[in-house]
Amino acid sequence: MTLSRIELADWRAVHSWASLTQVCRFQTWGPNTEEQTRAFVTTAVEAWAHSPQQRFAFAARFEDDVVGMGELHVRSRGQRQGEITYAVHPRVWGQGVGTAIGKELFARGFEDLGLHRIYATCDPRNLGSARVLGKLGMTLEGRHRHTALIRDGWRDSEMFSILEDEWREKDGPDADE
User: Fold this and answer.
1) Buried b (16+ CB within 10 A) or exposed e, 114-132
2) Residue 46 contacts by C-beta under 8 Å, 6 or more apart in sequence?
3) How far, in Å, CA of 61 to CA of 165, rounded?
4) CA of 120: how far to CAs of 7, 35, 52, 63, in Å?
5) What is the pTM for the complete model shown?
6) Residue ranges of the alpha helices (H) in 108-163?
7) Handedness of CA 165, 168, 170, 171 (dihedral sign)
8) What are phi and psi of 27, to 5 degrees?
9) What's the half-sphere exposure (Cβ side, CA atoms, 13 Å) at 117?
10) How do residues 69-93 score in pLDDT, each as one tens digit?
11) Which residues contact 141 (CB under 8 A, 6 or more apart)?
């Protein structure tokens, strides 16, 4: 699995999971129409041209197949803080794709952008996503109550984070030395 910049041509692959109820169950978006997915991918592609760039959207590719995507959002350059998000096609759930996306996003955030802290949130009911964040070495910091109104009511968000030195010890460029 590799991460590369998302491209306009990826919209159909993204739509193959963004249109599925089980993928967006815990999200404020979706299930997407084709127009919504095209607009999302267009905005993600255009973000690469912004300066300073705050949003880095990647397609997760296995051979020629887009099986997921990940994004790194710089939330504060001054405080060196970023947030990761990801989505994976259900046909590859449980195969390590989400974990691989997270590891790549960490490398880009800590190595390329010099971030100090990267965080992620997930609905407490989304046990699969919480497992991925744990496998990535992120620390559960706590629960924020009623952070998003989704289809079945108000959603809480569990906050996870990893610090630069924690990542370097676990998976960073010098971890094996």
Assistant:
1) ebebbbbbbbeebeebbeb
2) none
3) 29
4) 24, 27, 22, 27
5) 0.93
6) 127-135
7) positive
8) -110, 160
9) 12
10) 999 999 999 999 999 999 999 999 9
11) 119, 159, 160, 161
